[in-house]
Amino acid sequence: MRLVIALGGNALLRRGQALSADNQLDNVRIAAAQLARVALKHEVVLTHGNGPQVGLLALQSAAYTVVQGYPLDVLGAQTDGMIGYLLEQELSNLLPPDKVVVTLLTRVEVDLADPAFAKPSKPIGPIYRSEEAEKIGAEKGWVMAADGAGFRRVVASPHPQRVLGLDPIRWMLAHQALVIAAGGGGIPVAVGDDGRSRHGVEAVIDKDLCSGLLARELKSDCLIIATDVDAVYLDWGLPGQRALRLVSPVELARHAFPPGSMGPKVEAASRFATDTGNRALIGSLENIEAMLEGRAGTEVRRDVAAPLDSSSHGFHLVG
């Protein structure tokens, strides 16, 4: 099968961990062990988040005041290279010598008229306490928003309109490569006034929405969104929280999910399942093989309707 696997930024750097190179490498090695087993059996395009990493680079850039800080599109490209390198090396260490692993920088077109530019929502960088967030936000002119028990910087997150450079990805897949692409949701670019040239955009695209678009364009058999929770939950964090196991896009649309975290994952999975008729999976990276076998995570399919409070994979066919 052809799989697009979206690896969450928090799977590369656990919540609360210091943003150190050693911590990221340790987590990449854990991720690579899971991904390598899947790559031995399937054709894989791997995407990844970059929220913690691009936020750290933004802080480092802002601290050097001799020159103006680098824009988010450039910082996003830097994280693509950094994370891609770590994933590529650790996967290559685990896969057979003849299995090529390649990282491609991927530009993704966005619309400058997207309302997201007026309402920042994408969390990046470290988590701060309330007092820290207020101080840093005021000093740097950043928008801060709640993220769990803490606060993080939020930036514009426009919807991806078009993935550029699909032909090289298809060529690599045709030559049995494992492709790492569209890191961090891709490098955001927009068409200039001449209607032809493109320029970078100060934004961070949601990696799940971009991964869903990429999976549709590549005609993937399955979209897998690997995150730091084992499934999609209703009433998350409340005593009556319950996992969704097998569910249709129609059922998911009846509920609201947090826009900065689970919301884009649900949207991407629903759109992929609706448009392709194939399944989308959401769950923890450590359960990726079980998810493919239908034994873990949340499975989204357009041809089923499952009780929303079900904890099993029992379902009814629709139509």
How do the helices and strands line up, and which of them pair or pack?
Layout: E1 2-7, H1 9-12, H2 21-39, E2 43-48, H3 51-63, H4 72-94, E3 101-103, E4 107-109, E5 122-128, H5 130-140, E6 143-147, E7 150-155, E8 162-163, H6 166-174, E9 178-180, E10 187-191, E11 198-200, H7 207-217, E12 222-227, E13 232-234, E14 242-244, E15 246-247, H8 249-252, H9 262-276, E16 279-284, H10 288-292, E17 298-300, E18 304-305, E19 316-317
Parallel strand pairs: 1-2, 1-12, 2-9, 3-9, 4-10, 12-16, 15-17
Antiparallel strand pairs: 4-8, 5-7, 6-7, 10-11, 13-14, 16-17, 18-19
Helix pairs in contact: 2-4, 3-4, 7-9
Question: Describe it for me?
Answer:
- Helices cover 36% and strands 24% of the residues.
- Helix 2 packs across helix 4 (72-94) and helix 3 crosses helix 4.
- It has helices at residues 9-12, 21-39, 51-63, 72-94, 130-140, 166-174, 207-217, 249-252, 262-276, 288-292, and strands spanning 2-7, 43-48, 101-103, 107-109, 122-128, 143-147, 150-155, 162-163, 178-180, 187-191, 198-200, 222-227, 232-234, 242-244, 246-247, 279-284, 298-300, 304-305, 316-317.
- With 319 residues, it is α/β, with parallel strands linked by helices.
- The protein has 2 domains: 1-105 and 160-220, Acetylglutamate kinase-like (Carbamate kinase), CATH 3.40.1160; 225-319, no CATH class.
- The strands form 5 sheets. It has an 8-stranded mixed β-sheet, sandwiched between helices.
